[in-house]
Structure formats: C-alpha cells, structure tokens
Amino acid sequence: MAFVSLLLAGCDRGNDTEGGAGTVRLRHDDEAVVERGRTLYAQHCAACHGARLEGQPNWRERDPGGRLPAPPHDTSGHTWHHPDQVLFDITKHGVAHAARMQGYDSAMPAYAGVLSDEQIVAVLSFIKAQWPRAIRRQQEEVDRAARGR
Predict the structure, then answer these.
(1) Tens digit of pLDDT for each residue in 25-72?
(2) What confidence tier does 106 reach under pLDDT thresholds 50, 70, 90?
(3) To pair with 94 at 20 to 30 A between CA atoms, which of 12, 46, 123, 129?
(4) Of 25, 23, 31, 44, residue with least CA distance to 129
(5) CA atoms of 2 and 59, how far apart (whole Å)
(6) Most distant CA pair in the chain: distance in Å?
(7) What is the pTM for the complete model shown?
(8) What angle do helix axes 84-93 and 117-129 make, rounded to 10 degrees?
(9) Could you read off the pLDDT of 123-146 as tens digits, one per residue?
(10) Are 54 and 77 in contact (CB under 8 A)?
C-alpha cells in the first residue's frame, strides 16, 4: 500500500472547482448531503467498493491484469489518510490524472461528466460520515496540513 500512498502524495491539488486549489470540503456533518451521498454511493460505488465500504478481497495485491482491486473506504483502507481535495480529484478525474501518472492503469473510472462536483462531495461526505470520530479527526488533521493550516 506504500505504492498508493506515494502515488497519491503528488496528486494535483488544482481542479475546476470554484476557488482553485484545496477548496473542496466534505460535509459529513450535513444529514441531507450524507443521505444524498448514501444513495449515490449505492448507485455508483458499492459494486466495487462494497455496500459496507469493505472493498474487494486482496485489495493490496495486483490482479492478473496488473490492476489493484478496489480498496475499502472503511477504517481498514487508506481513504482516510488523504485530504478532501485529493479524494475529490481521484473521484472526479481518476487516479492517473490526479497523480499525474499518464501510464497508470486503474479500474477506477473518472466521474467527471457522470457526477457533478456536488454529487462527488456528497459521496465522499457519506464515506467520511461512516468513520469513527477518532478517524475523522485524524483525516481532518491531514486535510488541514494539506491546506497549509
């Protein structure tokens, strides 16, 4: 999993959300946003990442095609290790674009043109809302550090 952490460490912070770099903020404390995210997650994400955020089996090992299976988004995965903006960029633009690695092959599709920015924030807010308070606090520290605060 160190590879994925290194891969994501250099993710592009700039995207086409208003305000520029580091402007995405997840809204895990807004019930309406979380419920919308729950529905969108079930429609667009659960088939790979699991209905309970559990990910695919052996998600740390490449499959015969060389791709990593979908990681869990619960506390056993690495999602919470990344700032909000990185999670948004990966979801919207895909891993290869977000990490500036043209040749990186991932089964994770880019959701630009499929989900609006607000819908992506809702999905990610739903995921974050499922984490225990201590994990949310740790992720918020990572997010603050990435914002330079």
Answers:
(1) 999 999 999 999 999 999 999 999 999 999 999 999 999 999 999 999
(2) confident
(3) 129
(4) 31
(5) 13
(6) 42
(7) 0.84
(8) 130
(9) 999 999 999 999 999 999 999 999
(10) no
Who's near 37: CB < 8 A, 6+ residues apart?
A: 121, 122, 123, 124, 125, 126, 127, 129
Instruction: Tell me the CB-side half-sphere exposure of residue 10, using CA atoms within 13 A.
Output: 8
Question: Regarding the domain delimited by 28-147, which CATH topology (the fold level of the hierarchy) does it fall under?
Answer: Cytochrome Bc1 Complex; Chain D, domain 2 (1.10.760)
Cross-strand bridge partners of residue 115:
112
SS3 assignment for the chain: CHHHHHHHHCCCCCCCCCCCCCCCCCCCCCHHHHHHHHHHHHHHCHHHHCCCCCCCCCCCCCCCCCCCCCCCCCCCCCHHHCCHHHHHHHHHHCHHHHCCCCCCCCCCCCCECCECHHHHHHHHHHHHHCCCHHHHHHHHHHHHHHHCC
pLDDT beyond 50 at 20: no
CB atoms within 10 A of CB 109: 12
Distance CA 59, CA 108 (A): 13
